[in-house]
Amino acid sequence: MRGKIRVLVGKPGLDGHDRGAKVVAAALRDAGMEVIYTGLHQTCESIVEAAVQEDVQVIGLSVLSGAHMTIFPKVLKLLKAKKATDILVIGGGIIPIDDMKKLQRIGVRMLFGPGTPTSEIVDWIRSNTSEPKKPSRRAKRSVKKRVTKKRKK
Amino acid sequence: MKKEEWNEKVKSCEERQVEFTTVSGLPVRVLYTPDDIADIEYDRDLGYPGAFPYVRGVYTNMYRGRLWTMRQFSGFGTARDTNRRYKYLLKHGQTGLSVAFDFPTLYGRDSDDSFSRGEVGKCGVAIDSLRDMEILFRGIPLDRISTSMTINPPAAMLLAMYIAVGEKQGLPPRILTGTIQNDMLKEYQAQKTWIYPPGPSMKIISDILAYCCEHVPKWNTISISGYHIREAGSTALQELAFTLKNGFTYVEHGIKAGLSVDKFAPRLSFFFNAHLDFFEEIAKYRAARRIWARMMREKYNAEDPRSYLMRFHTQTAGCTLTAQQPENNIIRTAYQALSAVLGGTQSLHTNSMDETYALPTEKSAKIALRTQQLLAYESGVANTIDPLGGSYYVESLTNELEKGAYEYFTKIDKMGGVIPAIEKGFFQKEISRSAYSYQKALERKQKYHVGVNVFEEEERPEIEILKISRQVEKVQIQELRKLRKQRNNKRVREKLRMLRKAAEDGESLMPRILDCVREYATIGEMCNTLKEEYGIYHEPIIF
Amino acid sequence: MERFRAVCMNDIKSLLKGDKRVIARIVSAVEDGKGEDLLESIFPHTGRSFHIGITGPPGAGKSTLVTSIAKRLLGCDKKVGIIAVDPSSPFSGGALLGDRIRMTDLALKDNIFIRSMASRGSMGGLAQATKDVALVLDAAGMDYVLIETIGVGQVELDIAQVCDTTIVVLVPESGDSIQAMKAGLLEIADIMVVNKGDREGSERLVSELKFAFEMREKEAGWDLPILKTTAIKDEGIEELVLALESHEKHLTKTGKLEQERKKKLLLRMHELIERRIRVHLQKKVIPENEIKQLMESMYKRQLNPYRVAKKIARRIIRGSR
Fold this sequence. Notes:
- Chain A is of the alpha/beta class and about 150 residues long.
- Chain A has one domain: Rossmann fold.
- Chain A contains six helices and five strands.
- Chain A starts with 5 loop residues before the first strand and ends with a helix.
- Chain B has about 550 residues and is α/β, with parallel strands linked by helices.
- Chain B contains 22 helices and nine strands.
- Chain B has a domain at about 35-65 and about 180-445: TIM Barrel (Alpha-Beta Barrel), CATH 3.20.20.240.
- In chain B, strands 5-4-3-2-1-9-8-7-6 form a nine-stranded parallel beta sheet.
- Chain C is an alpha/beta fold and about 325 residues long.
- Chain C has three domains: about 1-45, no CATH class; about 45-255, P-loop containing nucleotide triphosphate hydrolases (Rossmann fold, 3-Layer(aba) Sandwich); about 270-320, no CATH class.
- A seven-stranded parallel beta sheet of chain C has the order 4-2-5-1-6-7-8, with helices on both faces.
- In chain C, strand 6, helix 9 (about 180-190) and strand 7 form a beta-alpha-beta unit.
- At the B-C interface, loops of B face loops of C.
């Protein structure tokens, strides 16, 4: 039997638009998940630290301020430094399609645009956390392989 | 045919939906008749445009005399970039400016603050000091334009900068026209851009009211905003009720600060959202005018009729725009703009189709402006006043919203007023609940959003979008560092010390802020100085 | 899930060194009820930290207070663990945990570990899981473990009872509810705090509480302090931390700490036995098909639960010999 799915929902940066983050947080709760909500105006450092201490499987970030190309890469970098790359990073907000592609290439697992039904987010999290990954060497290698394959395309 | 007979007949007809409600969830009946507005007494409840209770409009001949101000909210990159965009918009027939600041500016942080990283010039224009403000308005004579600035915690600083730019153009403050948003209550409730706790924030607002009464009499000192409350997910009724209640709270604070109500109330203006539900929005604006006029006369004993006027700006609802099929946003925005015009707005911003992706491109911004021009010059809707007045449905909905608003007022009063209710998280909870239940309604298809949950398409079209270069942040920080070297830092420190002293002593901050601004103190330096005295706000934890 | 085992069983050393990632993993395992083997191995390394419970009604400012206390303790070079418990939704089993909102900056410091826990609703399960999580933080070398719970029900009272010191927090607005809570919350308090002390009514609440406690049977050597704090302004925290220290001293000096901890261990042992028996009972003693039959017969009044229970218990006791 699988343990509870734990998700961190965070609002990094200065942007105070928390409608989306709160709606998603409520929807995840109603889908039976435990949601750690970090509140507004968080630094990337505190988000990553919280994710580690709370042992979440997923970090969901909402960015509407246009700072996504700064924030997402930084979170990924910090996770790497903490050897916590098994934590999946997903997000949503006002993000141009080109930037979405770039972010997904560097390791953001999924970005949900405006208008995404919350059920889609719930389903995505469920199906991607059903086998929590160990941060073992093998797993890391296979992730790398997949990324390089994609790049070749 | 008799009504009873028709009632029977319509009952036997099948309906395409189980339930008909407004987008806010108010039930809508199949038909409205004179019975629904039987209580209305024309002179008492509607009256004539420009006359009490102003339901039909705040001015005597409304758009027959002068069209609404077409005021497109814009700003991005450096002051230089935005100055160029302003000139472009003015060239294409825009009639007022509206400044969008970037997040660091909105939060009173300098561009080189660690919190500003990645945010400089992204969501609006980056302003650190008077130097940037001078560039922003270069070649734009401030006596020939009115400027609205969406700025809240550092509102006093930006107003001071505007006054200082005027001085440099040889213009005295008394002729400047424009608006600062300066509405902190809705920040705590919905938009969440704050620095200090409510107490000091309200004190600064009172200072601005007093200062403008005396020195900048044509300035709109607070733009009491429902827009953000609605964007955060409230219903139309909540937008109406919370916004007006906030307005009354400012009035009470002004009176408490020793100002006469008729001195400052005429300079209060409002800012509403134009959302999807066409008639509900029109009813909302009309109800707002009646509530404001009556309360100002009856409760706050205002005597100058200008204190009764609920003048308002409208922006179409950003939260209704879709990333899917973005061209549809042009049409969506047009209907929303129409509701604002039929509702008697004084100025209007129409959103651009690409705003779910980024700030608008020049082209999409122009289409948005043209949408207003089509309404004004082609559609004929501005040719007569309040054409929907007397509509059984619209009047009945106006009454219903008004009644609901008064119920909220009572509830908020029972909690001890707006600020205690903020501290208890009342508004925050109300708004996020509405947002969540609307989202659930969409997912159950009880409400529709074209392109999102009905008439969906697989492919998202690639559209052109505005990119803010990473250079902006670098350039802005370089300029800021240069400024810090060039200015007279001894004088800056001295003026900042005096600002701190004024805050400690509870004196008016405006003159001290102006002194700082003239010496090119930065927004961050001023706000940090005040933070030392006032502390910072912590949000109550509410779900 | 097996992940914790793979990561953690080999990593007891890292836990003892205070590796946050490992602590977090082990806590998850324990929360999911799969950490018994781990707990066995870490138990010898526990018993060194002091456990403080902070409980009170929603909105009393507990998180802010916990944050302030933690800051002081960190300032004294202590290692601090925080467990913030919030209720799970009874409908979905999910939870929205927001206590960290107040603590994010604090969480970045070296000597602290903060964990949000959902109550997960199962009978008595919350108290048990919290105890186990506290044990993990104990093993990880925390000098203090602060356990924050909403004081509304029996379960929270149970948690408070695992702590060495219990702080009960009230606010002026909660005045009306004191009557209702007297029986519960006030009985368990070692230190009483009136938070939001700058608000109207706080003085009145303090004197009401003083009156209430005069009627309570006094514990020898401990004069229960009633303190006023304004946590958001960091006022009164110094006094509170001093009170905590003197309660700790009092417990040590009187030998009460040892006495109470022994009692708690016995209690814990009993609980664990009960849990094992319950699981055993549910799974093995009565086969699935027999359960259905039994229910049917009892419903029809052909059998009675008293008799059935007696029979089954006899079977278990005999079997265990």
